[in-house]
Design a protein that fits this description.
The protein is of the alpha/beta class. The protein is 36% helix and 13% strand. The protein has two domains: 5-131, 3-Layer(aba) Sandwich (Rossmann fold), CATH 3.40.50.1980; 142-255, Rossmann fold (3-Layer(aba) Sandwich). A four-stranded parallel sheet has the order 2-1-3-4, with helices on one face. A four-stranded parallel sheet has the order 6-5-7-8, with helices on both faces. It starts with a strand and ends in a 6-residue tail after the last helix.
Length: 261
């Protein structure tokens, strides 16, 4: 059977192309926008949460890539009715990209040039992990990483974003874990939490909510003594080929951070 791949996760779509699997990709979501020139020719099948199952069925994928955080369980259950191979991913930290690359090699290693590119990404990630661990500050800054407003939403400490920042030398707040899936992974803020006074940095992500300079003052009001800045959410939250660059980017940002206390 000829391999036909559908990706319902933007970062995984980018990974497929980075591994040279573009010729086998037959479907993507509307949020799968990288690499722009290549994905423009791939049919869209809705969003990550609202997949057009009828259209996807017509495209006859042999493999569909999904993610625990990004896609709905009911979608995956429906896919099992007509897709031979569901590839379920759940990287919860930068080092988990090593397992993700192993998954890609397991499912698509027979397709050239996957294995050499898997190895290259693996070596790049291992190098980045070693670099940031060696440069971890003695007093890690406290970071409030905002992903949404009205209401304000942030990240629990067991999310990919929080663990990436931890590897790079920062502590995200609040000090809670959200569990393996569900809304608890992205806590809602009331704005009067006592720990907000201890925050050194407020980072406004470019996704899923696209914060701009007009939101800086509103975020500053949450933590009057903190430094507030806009950050690249794709680098800090997309696993796959951006993982190494994301670690270095976070370490660079945190390297310029100095706790106020």
């Amino acid at each position: 059977m000829q391999t036909r791949i559908a990706s319902l996760v933007p970062s995984l779509t980018e990974l497929l192309f980075a591994l040279g699997l573009g010729p086998w990709v037959v479907a993507r979501t509307g949020f799968c926008i990288h690499p722009a020139a290549e994905v423009s020719a791939v049919p869209k099948v809705g969003g990550t949460k609202d997949v057009n199952l009828a259209k996807l069925r017509r495209l006859a994928p042999t493999h569909v890539l999904v993610n625990v955080d990004e896609n709905r369980l009911e979608t995956v259950e429906a896919l099992r009715e007509f897709v031979p191979h569901i590839v379920v991913t759940h990287p919860c930290g930068p080092e988990d990209n090593l397992d993700l690359l192993a998954q890609m090699a397991q499912h698509f290693g027979a397709l050239a040039p996957v294995l050499p590119r898997v190895q290259a990404l693996k070596l790049e990630l291992e190098s980045a992990l070693a670099e940031v661990r060696a440069a971890t500050p003695a007093q890690p800054p406290n970071v409030l990483y905002l992903i949404w407003r009205e209401p304000w939403m942030t990240v629990a400490r067991d999310t990919y974003i929080s663990r990436l920042l931890a590897q790079a030398g920062g502590h995200t707040w609040p000090d809670v874990e959200g569990g393996p899936h569900g809304a608890g992974r992205y806590p809602v803020l009331q704005g009067d939490e006592p720990w907000l006074a201890a925050v050194d940095e407020v980072w406004l992500s470019s996704e899923p909510y696209q914060f701009t300079e007009q939101h800086l003052a509103q975020a500053q009001a949450l933590c009057p003594q903190a430094r507030v800045r806009l950050v690249d959410g794709e680098l800090l939250s997309w696993y796959g080929p951006r993982a190494a660059a994301g670690l270095r980017y976070a370490a660079q940002l945190l390297g310029g951070s100095r706790p106020l206390r």
